[in-house]
Amino acid sequence: MVEYVYFAPESAFREKAEKMFMKHRELILQQLPKSEIHYIGSTAVRGSLTKGDVDLQVRVAQEDFSTAKKAFQNLYSINEGSYQTSFFCGFETKDDLPVGVQLTVKGSEADHFWKTTHFFQEHPAYNETYNQLKKRFDGKDMEQYRDAKAEFLTDILASKAYQTFLAKC
């Protein structure tokens, strides 16, 4: 069965999304008070087109990863559509908006979500290019969009602009 993707301006979700972020941030901090939590993804970038979901990245030390993963399994469902490693696990839940939580080990190869979000926040021209990609796939096959998105983000992560940005992080 084909899943379709639809986008809307983040401003349509902003108030509710910020409340969802704060709510889930507090839930997570109750379980993992030493974790670092970032509001990530397109809904966190003003001027973006978004699916209207709320994404968080929770950064922990490697030695805390197993404990964090177990704690999250009491709060969220594991996102079966994403890969899992010893340094990354995706979770999801339904709330007023869909919520995704990316649990990552600090400094691991999966510890890039917050950086990528900040890059788009600070580089509106790249964000607009991303919006154009989303417009091309609005109302179309989700898998095809995900493939195009992965290619686009791979190119962004390899770009000179992103590498220069990383040097400042």
Name the descriptors.
169 residues, 6 helices, Beta Polymerase, domain 2, alpha+beta
Proportion of residues in extended strands: 15-25%
Describe the largest sheet. 5 strands, mixed
Strand order of the largest sheet: 3-5-8-7-6
Low-confidence stretches: none
Q: How would you describe this structure to a colleague?
A:
Keywords: Transferase. This is GrpB domain, predicted nucleotidyltransferase, UPF0157 family. One of its GO terms (molecular function) is transferase activity. The chain has one domain (4-167): Beta Polymerase, domain 2 (2-Layer Sandwich), CATH 3.30.460.10. The chain has 6 helices and 9 strands. It has helices at 14-31, 65-73, 113-122, 124-137, 142-158, 160-168, and strands at 4-5, 8-9, 36-40, 49-50, 54-60, 77-78, 88-94, 98-105, 140-141. Helix 4 (124-137) runs antiparallel to helix 5 (142-158). The longest helix has 18 residues, at 14-31. The model has no long low-confidence stretch (mean pLDDT 96).
Task: Briefly summarize what is shown.
With 169 residues, this protein is of the alpha+beta class.
